[in-house]
Design goal:
Oligomer: single chain
Distance between the termini: 72 Å
Structural class: alpha+beta
Number of helices: 5
Strand content: 25-35%
Helix content: 40-55%
Order of helices and strands: HHHHEEEEEHE
Radius of gyration: 20 Å
C-alpha cells in the first residue's frame, strides 16, 4: 500500500512540475508575442502585424487588407491631430482557457499618446488565441459592444472578456 501511495505521489509531483513548466513556457510565448505586436504597431508595420490577426477577425473584416486599411486610417486620424503614439504597455493575461481545440485568453493594454496640449491614455484589451498549444499567439480586438455577441462572432469562449475601451486625458 505504501509503495502504491509513493508511486501516485511521484506521478502527481511530476505531473505538477510538467504543468508548471508548460505554464511558464506559455506565459513566455505570450510575452514574446505581445513584444512583437508592440514593435510592429509602433513602427507602423501594419502589413506584418496583420499576419498575427486571428482568422475570425479577418473573416469578420472580410480581408486582411481591410484590417491593414483600418490600422492605417487609425494612424492617419491620430497624425491629423498632431498626436503621436508613444507606447503600448501590455498587462498580465487572464487565465488561459481551452476552447474548440484552441488556447484563449484576454490581455489588457494601455496605448499612450501625446500632442502639444495633453497626454492621452487609452485602456483596452485584446483576446489572444493559440492554435498550436501556446507556441504562437494571434490577436483579435473587440468588434461588438455586447460580450456574448462579440465572442460568438470571434469564436471565443464565453469566459473571455476583452476589456472595453476607456481613456484618461492629462492636460499639460
Amino acid at each position: 500500500m505504501k509503495q502504491l501511495f509513493f508511486l501516485l505521489l511521484i506521478f502527481f509531483l511530476s505531473s505538477t512540475i510538467n504543468a508548471q513548466n508548460k505554464s511558464t513556457e506559455t506565459s513566455k510565448n505570450i510575452q514574446e508575442a505581445t513584444k512583437i505586436y508592440r514593435e510592429l504597431f509602433l513602427a507602423k508595420k501594419f502589413q506584418e502585424l496583420s499576419n498575427f490577426a486571428s482568422p475570425k477577425l479577418i473573416e469578420y473584416l472580410n480581408t486582411k487588407q481591410d484590417l491593414i486599411y483600418l490600422m492605417n486610417e487609425l494612424n492617419k486620424n491620430i497624425e491629423s491631430k498632431d498626436a503621436t503614439i508613444s507606447n503600448i504597455i501590455f498587462g498580465e493575461n487572464s487565465e488561459i482557457i481551452t476552447y474548440n481545440k484552441e488556447l484563449q485568453c484576454s490581455i489588457p493594454f494601455t496605448l499612450e499618446m501625446y500632442d502639444a496640449k495633453k497626454n492621452v491614455f487609452f485602456y483596452s484589451g485584446l483576446a489572444l488565441i493559440s492554435f498550436d498549444d501556446g507556441k504562437t499567439w494571434f490577436f483579435t480586438f473587440k468588434v461588438d459592444g455586447d460580450n456574448i455577441k462579440n465572442n460568438q462572432i470571434l469564436g471565443l469562449n464565453e469566459n473571455i472578456l476583452i476589456q472595453d475601451r476607456s481613456q484618461k486625458i492629462i492636460n499639460k
